[in-house]
Amino acid sequence: MVRVKENLIENKKSPHQEGLHSAERVVSKHFSDMFNAYSKAINKAYNRTGSLFESPFKRLIVEDSAYFSRLVWYIHYNPQKHGFVKDFKDYPYSSYYSHISNKPTRLQREELLTWFGDANEYKYFHQLQHSENEFDKYIIEFD
């Protein structure tokens, strides 16, 4: 999940900021640059060529507070869902422990924990049994 700065969107809503300069295009361009840089680094590290991603980038705007809360859980739960680990808390690449840690991070930890109340409420929310069916309407599948 990525949060786009509101001032970026507001500044790009001008009628002069359309087409290639629209807010949506600027955000997509930043993601494209990031994915391309990542692909180049992986290709160089593993002496390979070609694309790492099969399909074009897709996204959904999160505008519902309940969906936001469950999406945080779903992102952490995903490695468990797909069988990488038995418990999502054991997945080494998760942001879950970064959120509840006191170590320095570039993540917006305090803002996220405050959303849930505090670190204890955040942990409690992750312990609840959520239904994957809550996400069916939000899942983006590629044909």
UniProtKB/TrEMBL annotation:
<dbReference type="GO" id="GO:0003677">
    <property type="term" value="F:DNA binding"/>
</dbReference>
<protein>
    <recommendedName>
        <fullName>Transposase</fullName>
    </recommendedName>
</protein>
<dbReference type="InterPro" id="IPR036515">
    <property type="entry name" value="Transposase_17_sf"/>
</dbReference>
<dbReference type="GO" id="GO:0006313">
    <property type="term" value="P:DNA transposition"/>
</dbReference>
<dbReference type="GO" id="GO:0004803">
    <property type="term" value="F:transposase activity"/>
</dbReference>
